[in-house]
Design brief:
Nucleotidyltransferase, domain 5, alpha/beta, about 180 residues
Length: about 180
């Protein structure tokens, strides 16, 4: 995990994030995964991926999933990280550094130590391992939410739109976390 930039009293989180992006090596890939569970209790997730070139970000890809009514936001956060990381397999960008900007601290924590062996977390870690064998260097770091960070806003929009969809993602399933939340 990469350390996140620390906001101060004069710099907004958005400005700080933008400045930090400009320090990334050329040809880095940055991905923003996010999830949403609006009033209808259906969970959606989305991700947006960008290519960093000459200190500019160019949209490389995006996607979204509808997790249905039997998952929690936490599940979707981990699942969308898996989807975002998996999308690197099909990118035409050079295999380089990929940074996953996650706005959910608990998801980051569980990625570091999956003591409950959650399936989505296990899949993310397996995919990161596989991509590392292909030459990728993948890092995760925290990104503040709701601060007008373009990639995070795009992922959140995709997640909200997909949460209101009527058709669940083909791999949606009832999760242990959802079952525990029902007790």
């Amino acid at each position: 995990m990469l350390p996140s930039p620390k906001p101060d009293k004069t710099t907004t989180p958005q400005q700080l994030h933008e400045e930090w992006l400009h320090t990334l090596p050329n040809h880095s890939i940055v991905t923003y995964p996010d999830s949403s569970k609006p009033e209808n209790r259906s969970v959606g997730c989305g991700w947006a991926t960008f290519h960093c070139s000459d200190q500019q970000l160019y949209r490389l890809g995006q996607g979204s999933c509808h997790q249905g009514n039997w998952a929690e936001v936490y599940d979707a956060e981990l699942h969308v990280i898996q989807e975002a990381v998996t999308s690197l397999l099909t990118t035409t960008a050079l295999r380089a550094t990929a940074i996953i900007f996650v706005d959910n601290r608990m998801a980051l924590k569980i990625l570091q130590f999956n003591k409950h062996n959650y399936e989505y977390t296990r899949r993310v870690l397996e995919m990161i391992s596989d991509l590392s064998l292909l030459g990728w260097k993948i890092f995760t770091t925290w990104c503040p939410s709701h601060c007008n960070i373009n990639g995070n806003v795009r992922a959140n929009t995709l997640a909200k739109r997909r949460a209101s969809s009527a058709v669940p993602y083909r791999f949606a399933c009832t999760t242990k976390i959802w079952l525990l939340a029902q007790e």
